[in-house]
Amino acid sequence: MVFGSSLLWFMIPGCGLFYSGMAKSTSALSMMTLSLWSIAIASIQWFLFGYSLSFSLTSHNSFIGDFNKAFYIGVREEAYPTAVRISEISFCFYQGVTSTLPAALLSGALAERARILPALVFIFLWNTFVYCPCAFWSLNPNGWSFQTGVLDFGGGAPVHVPASAAAIAYCYHLGPRTQEQKEAKPHNMAILVLGTIFIWFGSFGYNSGSAFGATLQAVFSCVVTNLSGSIGSITWAFQDYLSNGKCTAFGFCAGAVIGLIVITPASGFVHPAAAFPIAIIGTVVCRWGHLAKTNWKFDDTLDVFAMHGLAGIVGILLTGVFAHTAYGGEEIGLGGMVEGHYMQILYQLADTCAGFTWSISVSFFLLFIMNKIPFLRLRMEPEHAREGMDLDQMGIACYEHIEEIKIQVDTATWKIDPTDFVDKKQHKQDLIILNPQTIHQPVHQITNNHNYKEAQIYTDQMNEEEKDFVPPNNWRNYWWSWKA
User: Fold this and answer.
1) Which of helix, strand or coil describes residue 114?
2) pLDDT at res. 162
3) What is the fold of 2-393?
């Protein structure tokens, strides 16, 4: 369980890397760091009272727990009723890591325009007033959803659906991005691919850990999880190929993540063959959401609802279709629709609607109140947003040298690669070194006898011959400017 929980932990920074690659470079560091903030804040909240509100057994209602297990009081070697093969502290640790995941997911709604401090406050409040009740409903033996017979092996109902609903509320209060921001493409596909690797790897711990022991069910959940991720990646990539003739890296990664999400509620309850319809349906629906989000009345920056929300909803509903007692055992009752238990889909639908409605309602209220408090206003000022979320909110950019170059570009400073300068020595008297520390020695030998002063020039001050001399793509490592 400790190893499975550790694998699950890797999913959180994996989400941060995935979002960072999708976002503009000016928000890349914020997306990565917010995932770690989610771990820190949710873990402390879990220790204080989160675990007790979610899994205490002494509350006299089916909505939320009490404070009987606050500060992990009495959480030791005794087994929890739904995890009889392990100690309660192992169960607590696994569920605690799970509680950090929703906050990391909804952080994708904050990209490029949100202030960090209000987001951190919201994470603590949201985990208390939204995640804990939803976890109690679905995972606690006293919860109304658990007693109804809702099937949710990996905990998708309290994680993906409420997180996506909160993301919708956050997007609504933040307002839309600028048109330039909306049209921006993922800034770093390598980081996005790395995030996909972390999420895929961590999903084995997430889903198999829900078996709470080294059992055949845990092994089957890993097999089904890997199969679903593979099917999802191929499904999206194939749709991209039919649309534009290219098997895109983004499509492969997005499809893989969707396949991993959509199978989470069903991973320990279904035959491996069920991964095919579940992953294909989930990926098709989510790709439609990704393409249709421009028509929605909220700006879902990094597809939190389009991917995580829709995949979570589809996964919970299809669990009610394909769950089979041969794989889930007695804990899934009469099984799903494939075994003739047609009412199961209605139980799944009720649980999904309840979690989504509760989350979006409470989140909307919390954000409305926070936005009225001056130091908790949600959105950055427009002039700060132009600088980027990283520089304004964190004081440093993920690509510091690139941001400095962009500032030079914005002021119309030209950059020239020194190798081009060496090839065209007749122009050396017209050049100025902006950053001599980065220049190769041969260039110093050419320029050290000249006294140049730093200057900037705009394109309308150049003649055509000078413009043609400037190579547009070779300026990453050396900064130069034409002398006015």
Assistant:
1) strand
2) 96
3) Ammonium transporter fold (1.10.3430)
